[in-house]
Automatic annotation (TrEMBL):
Residues 110-130 are annotated as: Disordered. Residues 32-75 form the HTH cro/C1-type domain. SMART domains: HTH_XRE. It holds the Pfam family HTH_3. Residues 120-130 have a biased composition (Basic and acidic residues). It comes from the Bacteria. CDD domains: HTH_XRE (cd00093). This is HTH cro/C1-type domain-containing protein.
């Protein structure tokens, strides 16, 4: 099967995903080879992904998300949300102000709980007013 050049729009997205992987990885694993080993991929594969020369698989995105304590939304779209570790989100936002912090995250990081952060309170049975 002949290889075809990706459309420029997809290449741009691929490079952006690689850049965000690099940003998060450098905060958790300064050594790219060590991170690749823990992920079970070759170091050259991770290097190509971070440079934007290769697209990561969905399974690698899931593994990276878990290992780097960031959401898949961050890796794929650059959006920091409640599924990203709070400390990691603050560090990423401080280093890369172009990242998008969703409104619920700013409340979460200010010590306020939003409805999606808090479990629903237990309900009393009808007629129980104790």
């Amino acid at each position: 099967m002949a290889k075809h050049k990706r459309p420029d729009s997809l290449a741009i997205v691929q490079r952006a995903i690689g850049r965000r992987i690099t940003w998060a990885r450098e905060l958790v694993f300064p050594n790219q080879s060590e991170c690749a080993r823990l992920l079970g991929v070759d170091a050259s594969t991770l290097n190509k992904i971070e440079k934007g020369d290769r697209a990561p698989s969905v399974f690698l995105i899931l593994s990276l998300s878990n290992r780097l304590r960031v959401s898949t939304d961050f890796l794929l779209k650059g959006v920091l949300n409640g599924r990203t570790d709070g400390e990691m989100a603050l560090r990423l936002a401080a280093l890369h102000p172009e990242l998008v912090l969703q409104q619920q995250d700013t409340a979460f990081h200010m010590g306020k709980n939003t409805p999606c952060d808090m479990p629903e309170p237990p309900r009393r049975p009808e007629g129980d007013h104790s």
